[in-house]
Structure formats: C-alpha cells, structure tokens
Design goal:
By secondary structure, this protein is of the alpha/beta class. It contains eight helices and 13 strands. It has helices spanning about 10-25, 35-45, 60-70, 85-90, 105-120, 155-165, 170-180, 190-205; strands at about 5, 25-30, 50, 55, 60, 75-80, 95-100, 125-130, 135, 140-145, 145-150, 210-215, 220. The protein is elongated, with a radius of gyration of 21 Å. The two termini are about 30 Å apart.
Length: about 220
C-alpha cells in the first residue's frame, strides 16, 4: 500500500483528504506540526507528498526547495491561490504536479496515479488475453480464432486499458489521461473516433457489444 503524506493546516480539509485517500486504497500520514516539515516527511517515509503552499510560519515552496536537497520523493502542490506564478515557482523547485483548491477529488486521484506511473512505469506483459482475444503488446495486434488484426497505437492503448480495468467504468477523462501518459495527446473528439474504430475491429473479429457506453460516466468492458 502506497502512503501519502498530507501537509495541510486546514483541519477540515486535512480530514477530508485523509478519508478520500484511505477510501481509495492509500495509507496516510497527516502532519499537524509545521515547525520542521522536511524532517517529519523524511521520518514518515511516504511514497508521495500532498503539500499545501500556504502554511503557518512557513510556505510549501520553501519546504519543497529544502526537501529537494535531501530527497526526490514525488510532491503534488496544493494551494488555494490561483495564478501562473505559484505554479511556475512550484515546478521550478521540483514539484511533480500542481492542483488548486477547491479541487475535484477524482482529478486529484488521477494526478496521484499519473505521477506514480511516471516514476514507476509499468513493465507490461508481452501478451494479455480477454474473451478469447490475445493482445500482443510488442506487435500492437489482437488475435481471435487464429486471425491477427493490427490496431493503431491509440486503439491498442484504449483496449489494453479497458482490459486491465475490466468490469468497472472507465471515464473519458481517465482514458485521455492514460493516453497522455503514453505520450499521445488525445482530445475528446479523437477519443470518440478511436473508440468507434476499436468497436468496428472487435465486430469484424466477431466480438459484438463488448464496449458499453455508460452515459455521463464513461465506458465499461463487459
């Protein structure tokens, strides 16, 4: 279980972050004393830090700068101040990402997952199977009943991600975030086009109605 250090002086928000993270499978450690934050973080040994910029007696940017002298632990800055300057300063000091309050809980979780994927890239299997289909990650193909079909990079990435998350709804934002981490920028229209092309190739292989659209939620592989 990955552990997240929460450095937030607002007691209500700190409690909400703790609940959100633990409900989604993370361990937490919450700092309440801000006199020696860097040492407390290093002592706790978390896998990531959610670091507020505005803290009593100090600020998150200074903490981040000092922390980077001792550790490369991933840090996502959290702040109530809007504006490019905070973001520029946070990134220049070595933050891995940035989110502004009030934040969307789903967006925060996606940012956590994205940072973890970047620092610990997954080593995929050469082949993955689903419903009689074999996905070959090296050849970017799917094979069904002995017939191999080539998928585009985006089609393959979408299908692979849906297979890995079979049985749960995957939102469009989540898919686009995953494709972005695969070094391809995909907008909303492009995602729709690739989903339709993937469905057509599945139908050509004799697999119908495999990807179901859940209106307002996303897609689920049945």
């Amino acid at each position: 279980m990955k552990k997240i250090a929460v450095v937030e002086d607002d007691r209500v928000l700190r409690k909400a972050l703790k609940s959100l993270l633990e409900e989604n499978g993370y361990g937490t450690c919450c700092l309440e004393d801000f006199s020696n934050v860097e040492e407390e973080i290093l002592r706790a040994g978390p896998d990531m830090v959610l670091l507020d910029i505005l803290l009593p007696g100090t600020n998150g940017q200074e903490i981040l700068r000092n922390l980077r002298q001792k550790s490369q632990i991933p840090v996502i800055m959290v702040t109530s101040r809007e504006g490019d300057m905070d973001q520029i300063l946070a990134m220049s000091y070595g933050a891995d990402d940035y989110i502004t309050k009030p934040y969307n809980p789903t967006l925060l979780l996606l940012k956590l997952e994205a940072v973890f994927r970047r620092i610990q890239p997954e080593t995929p299997q050469e082949e993955v199977t689903w419903g009689g289909i074999t996905l070959n990650l090296l050849r970017s193909t799917m094979t069904h009943e002995g017939e191999e079909r080539v998928l585009s990079k985006n089609e393959f990435s979408i299908f692979y991600y849906l297979v890995k998350n079979q049985g749960r709804i995957v939102s469009r934002d989540e898919l686009m975030d995953y494709l972005w981490d695969c070094n391809d920028f995909v907008d909303d229209n492009t995602l729709t086009v690739n989903i339709n092309r993937l469905r057509k190739k599945l139908e050509e292989a004799g697999i119908r109605n495999a990807i179901e659209t859940r209106r307002g939620q996303g897609y689920i592989l049945l």
